[in-house]
Amino acid sequence: MGSADIIPGVSGGTVALITGIYERLIYAIKTIDLKFIPYFFMGFVDRKYFSKMRENIYSIDFRFLLPLVLGVGTAFLLLSRIIESLLKYYPTYSYAFFFGLILSSSAVVYKNIGKIDTHMIFFSIIGFLFSFYLMGLRYLQTNHSLIIIFFSGMITICAMILPGISGAFVLYFLGQYRYMLNALNTLRLIDIFMYLFGALLGIIGFSHLLSLLIKKHRLVIMSFLFGLMLGALRKPAELIIDQPADMLITIFSSIIGFMIVFLFNIYRTLYLKGTSRI
């Protein structure tokens, strides 16, 4: 997910979907409740709040979230320089690879929807049009003040957990992508902290809404997300057309991206069948 989230045009939510952890991710984020912070300070007045604080902390799904956060953070630190170089020197081949990833991922989501009806088609079209339009927008000219970085974190983290909407692209659209990539590479801690603080508040609030929608309207949400992913293909496709390179290598890069998701999904299907027999 970290590798996908750092790439404009690719969504970490897509990776969560194809690996089968998407709904678990949403519900795990929902368990984060920041009440333990005021409970800690209130505990110095009344010690019963220390007990409430412990109960609040223990209710958080750390077993799932901790390794996930460590994995995402590791990917960000290791790949930020690599991605920056690939997008600079091999943009066409990189986006061809991303195109294959997204296309194959959308096929996996389509397969998991389960049934096709008018509702599925309608919400898929809505998702496609929304994503297609968003991917066609030019980026905004904004400054790099701490308050802008804070709100950028709130907005992009919501996009990062939605399959089809690239959080990195939204950050690019807000005019903060290269600035934050440089901040990560040079370890400008104040900028990184403000972004993460905004992201934390944004993802906690958004996860509650998304988990409620998935629980009550799963088919509608999955259909909408399928449309989002198809619409997101516009961005890598435009970049490939605008910066033509060797056609064979471009096609080969796209096929590799497609096959990675395809083969991973086959492996996941076989793994799930094996665990069900156990």
Structure write-up:
The protein is mostly helical and 278 residues long. It has a domain at 2-80 and 120-234. The chain has 15 helices and no strands. The chain has helices at residues 2-5, 12-18, 22-30, 36-42, 48-58, 62-89, 91-113, 118-135, 146-160, 167-173, 177-186, 189-216, 218-232, 234-242, 247-277. α3 packs across α12 (189-216), α8 runs parallel beside α13 (218-232) and α9 runs parallel beside α12. The longest helix is centred in the last third of the chain and has 31 residues, at 247-277. The mean pLDDT is 81.
Cα-atom Rg, whole angstroms?
20 Å
- Note the main sheet: none
Number of helices: 15
* Head-to-tail CA distance between termini: 28 Å
Series of H and E elements:
HHHHHHHHHHHHHHH
| Average pLDDT score | 81
Shape: globular
**Regions with pLDDT < 50 over 5+ consecutive residues?**
none
Jot down its keywords.
mainly alpha, 278 residues, single chain
Could you give a short description of this structure?
The protein has 278 residues and is mainly alpha-helical. It is 80% helix and 0% strand. It has a domain at 2-80 and 120-234.
Strand-helix topology:
Blueprint: H1 2-5, H2 12-18, H3 22-30, H4 36-42, H5 48-58, H6 62-89, H7 91-113, H8 118-135, H9 146-160, H10 167-173, H11 177-186, H12 189-216, H13 218-232, H14 234-242, H15 247-277
Helix pairs in contact: 2-7, 3-12, 4-5, 6-7, 7-13, 7-14, 7-15, 8-13, 9-10, 9-12, 12-13
